[in-house]
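hi! just following up on the protien thing from before. the input was this:
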Amino acid sequence: MNEIGIVRLSYDGCVNARQHWETIYTSKAPNEVSWYQPKSTVSLDLILRVASSKDVKIVDAGGGASTHVDSLLQQGFTNVTVTDIASAALDHAQRRLGEDARRVAWRCADVLADTLADDSVDIWHDRAVFHFLTSAEQRQRYVEEVRRIVKLDGFVIVGTFAEDGPEKCSGLEIVRYSARTLHDEFGPAFELIESTREEHITPSGSAQQFQYCGCVNRRTSHCRAA
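and the predicted 3d structure came back as:
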């Protein structure tokens, strides 16, 4: 555990995934990976539209070394948690933030095996973890966990590769989504309120198409189309 502190949880059988991402973040600088963004404009805009106050609890799932946490702190959010399976990714973010890292809760955990409390999160944000879940069983478990963790009427914002996006990322197979197919994975308990696309330019200059969906955790209600 470093000076700032990271809650480290077991990996629930996901050692290979952990090793893969630890290798990525120990062999490359954060701004060298294809998913790097100097600023997470789309994600931040979506969060600002649904946040009722600056003290809502936000979880950045798979946030790793992303600059998204920087933007949240700059906007004045005071209750931010960043999770990632790779401790090296979290270490990068902490070093970049310096003393501001103390304003963030850090969790090194597999997103499918975290122990966040029931009904404890107001806004769940995930840019590019969900599309790595290539089995139906993984996706079902993810959705069940999000439904458990996010408060009733809380928000879920997920970004994945779009249907015309890359077929692989970091050497791994992924699943590509349209707005409809992404929302369908979450089902009628989640009311779709917004969907948008983003053209992400990688550090090497390539264009990648992303799809985002924002939902409300209704749990027992039926969805209406956005």
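The helical segments are 15-27, 41-50, 68-74, 87-97, 136-149, 179-186.
Residues 7-217 form a domain with the Rossmann fold fold (CATH 3.40.50.150).
cheers
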